[in-house]
Amino acid sequence: MENIKTVEDLIKSYKKLPGIGSKTAERLAYASLNLKKEEIDEFVSALESIETKIHFCPKCGMYIDTPFCPICDDASRDNKTLVVLTSFKTLMGFEKSGQYHGKYFILNGTISPSKGIDGEKIKLPVLTKQVEESKELEEVIIACDSTLEGELTSRYVYKQLHKVRPELKISRLAYGLPIGADLEYVDDQTIALSFLSRTAMKGE
Questions:
Q1: How many angstroms separate the CA atoms of 156 and 154, rounded?
Q2: Cβ proximity of 142 and 157 under 8 Å
Q3: InterPro entries of this UniProt entry (predicted)?
Q4: What is d(CA 59, CA 45) in angstroms, rounded to the nearest whole number?
Q5: Handedness of CA 144, 76, 92, 58 (dihedral sign)
Q6: 7-52 pLDDT per residue, tens
Q7: CA-to-CA separations, 176 to 58, 159, 189, in angstroms, rounded
Q8: Reported pTM
Q9: Residues 6+ apart with CB under 8 A from 121
Q10: What's the CA angle centered on 129, arms 68 and 72, to 5 degrees?
């Protein structure tokens, strides 16, 4: 016997989430049938809030649900350093590590020639302009994944920033990151070690 349509629709929805396979999605769908009305209403409200309340900070690209950014608008943050990331989840790893107290800029993914994604599509012009106009900024730390696309993005970001600010220190994460690592899945301690052991980038 096949699942009833309502359950099948739930399964399809859960399978859209990363790391959720068919069996897990089916288990979640049937577990949802046992939720109380108020729990379902709370779940639905939380999902709807993603569309109605969450937006990007125009400065750093972080997900926020308030008129102000908890990073950019925090006067206690160090304006001399800027970490360039490819995802919001990686930012959370940096914050949990407790080793960094500067600013961030989140690119919209990584450069991928095979997919037609270039520097324009990952907001590199926005980053370049911010770096060029920032008077306090002394160091940019590039924190892309150590995958082929991540490496390509790191080199491209470095070259563009070096053009507008040749004197600027540009470094990258180092110690503890395995080749091919996706930063959003790396633990907080490894991120902390990688940050503390970052190395300066140089032109080729």
A1: 6
A2: yes
A3: DNA_Rcmb_RecR, Rcmb_RecR, TOPRIM_dom
A4: 28
A5: negative
A6: 999 999 999 998 999 999 999 999 999 999 999 999 999 999 999 9
A7: 32, 25, 9
A8: 0.75
A9: 108, 109
A10: 20
